[in-house]
Amino acid sequence: MAELDKDCLFCKIIRGEVPSYTIFENDDVKAFLDLSQVNPGHTLMVPKKHIANFFDYTADDAQRFLKYIPAIANAIKNYDPKITGMNISTNNGASANQVVMHSHIHFVPRFEGDGLKIVTRNNEANYTEADYQKIAEQIKAQF
What we know:
It is a single chain. The chain is α+β, with helices and mostly antiparallel strands. It has one domain: HIT-like (HIT family, subunit A, 2-Layer Sandwich), CATH 3.30.428.10. The protein has helices at residues 9-15, 59-65, 69-79, 129-140, and strands at 22-25, 29-33, 43-47, 83-89, 105-111. It has a 5-stranded antiparallel sheet, covered by helices on one side. A hairpin with a 3-residue loop joins strand 1 and strand 2 (29-33). InterPro entries: HINT (IPR039384), Histidine_triad_CS (IPR019808), Histidine_triad_HIT (IPR001310), HIT-like (IPR011146), HIT-like_sf (IPR036265). This is HIT family protein.
């Protein structure tokens, strides 16, 4: 496990220095219950390589670590027949509310009437066709 950081909380969990409620683990990833339990079964999946967030992933990292998302999501969904959906998300960077700077994916089971609100906003009225085109072209240029 040479690719782990000595001071990172999730690296400590991977090494077994901090206890966790592990639901899945192999040579590539570890998935464990988030102590906040936004809803029952709320799980985090982390790569067993210290990567700060998706901005630092290589194509090989993505192929190696992200392939487990469907299996973990389905295992969580299948543990409780009342689960009717799931938010699968990641926060990349402090401005996006990333708290632990080790890449992780949240799996938040959803239940009918659970009251959990994911807040977004619609700014469509603030954009013209020219605005959309300019943004799209600027992003395309990054590939």
